[in-house]
Amino acid sequence: MARANVEVAINAIEITNAFIATTLNHKQYNTYGNPIEVVLSPPMLHIHDNLFLDEREIEFSMIRAQGSGGQNVNKVSSAVHLRFDVGQSSLPEECKTLLLELSDRRLSKDGVIVIKAQSFRSQEKNRADAIERLLLLIRSALQERALRKPTRPTRASQRRRVQRKSLHGEVKRLRAKVADFH
Question: Do 32 and 14 sit in the same domain of this protein?
């Protein structure tokens, strides 16, 4: 039993070491000296069901945050600009067209989504915040909108509307200057 736990622990360490490897096809060796072929997959961000976004398609630039912040604000670039080119991404064509049809100020005419995150003092938190906001934007573009069924107002609601209008007109008439009758 103890031998099985040791082997599980060794395998867990080997798997962890495999993810630490920096090159895509890097040979590592287990504790017995046998070579292990390591192929690292790119970091993927989950968008929806079986739709993922490759994190390497997102471009980050670090800038100095705006606003007050004391002595630290002028020395550290903690704000993050996230740039995501929709046209060059690996998203399916339907997703690209839905994203490009958005009327959002963060989407440029060139089809690039620009998100600025500066809510936190640390660069890592701002980077995570920018990624989360990008994913929320993509998810909102992919949501199916329910079609509106056109309806007519009821006769009672039309009557109430006319009563409100006449009452409002009466209030405005009473505000007018009173004419002198001498």
Answer: yes
